[in-house]
Amino acid sequence: MISIIIVTYNSEKFIRECIKSIYRSIKKNDFEIIVVDNNSSDKTSSIVYREFPAVRLIRLKKNLGFAKANNIAFERSKGDIILLLNPDTIVTEKSIDRMAEYIKYDDSVGVIGAKLKNFDGTLQLSCRRFPNFFNVFFGRKSLFRYIFPSNPISKDFMLEDLDYDKVQDVDWIMGACLMTRRDIVSNLGFFDETFKLFVEDTDLCYRIKKSNRKVIYLPDAVIYHYHGASVGEGFTKSQVYHNIGMYNFFRKHFIKNPLVKILLYYAILIRLCCIFIFSLFIRFLKSINMV
Predict the structure, then answer these.
(1) Mean of the pLDDT values across residues 100-109?
(2) How far apart are CA 261 and CA 248, in angstroms?
(3) Domain of 122?
(4) Measured between alpha carbons, how far is 255 from 270 in angstroms, rounded to an integer?
(5) pLDDT at 198
(6) Tens of pLDDT along 245-286?
(7) Fewer C-beta neighbours within 10 Å, C or N terminus of the chain?
(8) 24-37 in b/e burial notation, b at 16+ Cβ within 10 A?
(9) What's the structural domain count of the chain?
């Protein structure tokens, strides 16, 4: 059985079409859909409850974060294959089946991710290298990449030159559409709940790679994704969570010295301050029609 887990928060604009696309895509009957709603204030829960009676709906009384919500769904799921899917996605025909067939076929595979596309048909760069103390400052929304968009460090970290038309073994894949097996995450642990939002997918892939399993990008499975649909422009709470997530990732896997942990903590604070000041500067330039 395939257990499809969707964590929602104020997702009424997307959840209906997302679930409909799953039913159109998957051809096998042996699957379940579990929606965990993180205490939405909109009509997300009512849409799922009224329009999709076969979907298992778990309504949380408060927002427990993405990692915790997924763990709750995992504990209540029945499938031997687990698919994590963002609510702001549309699944194309047979994509889930193709991912499931691949992960069943090769025991060395621990995670599979689909090809993510924007709704204008352009590609989303969904594969990455693992962050290190240097390349983490050259990520997708980093100041360095904004100023120097074609710098080789960002291109390497973002895998911009990866052939997205071929099956690839990569470091990690965005969690918007991520498939794994129950036996693997039962042994390694599912999401680390110290990651409230962002970087939990990086951490999961890192642990799976350390267990000598592959993280596979599968271009035959195509998912349309409203990238950043719930994340605003400029300086947002999500950027704070992302930086905290990176700090937790380095602290967990690389840093043992308490002094280095303190230095990294303050480096993250300085980075957030720089992002905040830069976002204000860009907002000012836009207000006077300079950009």
Answers:
(1) 94
(2) 10
(3) 2-228
(4) 19
(5) 83
(6) 888 888 888 887 777 777 777 777 777 777 667 677 667 667
(7) C
(8) ebbeeeebbbbbbb
(9) 1
In terms of phi and psi (left: phi > 0; alpha: psi -120 to 50; beta: otherwise), the region of 159 is: left
Closest CA to 110 of 33, 200, 213: 213
Residue 270 domain-assigned (yes or no): no
DSSP secondary structure, 3-60, as one string: EEEEEESS-TTTHHHHHHHHHHH---S-EEEEEEE---SSSHHHHHHHH-TTSEEEE-
CB 3 within 8 A of CB 35: no
Helix (H, G, I), strand (E, B) or coil at 167: coil
pLDDT (tens digit, 9 = 90+) per residue, 32-73? Answer: 999 999 999 999 999 999 999 999 999 999 999 999 999 999
What are the structure tokens assigned to 33, written together?
Answer: 């859909």
- pLDDT tens by residue, 154-188: 888 889 999 999 999 999 999 999 999 999 999 99
Q: What does the DSSP 8-state code read for residue 171? A: S
CATH number of the structural domain spanning residue 140 = 3.90.550.10
Which residues are 224's β-sheet partners?
90, 117
Cα–Cα distance, 38 to 40 (Å, whole number): 6
Q: Is residue 239 part of a domain?
A: no
What is the reported pTM?
A: 0.86
Residue 234's pLDDT is: 45
Residue 249 lies in a domain: no
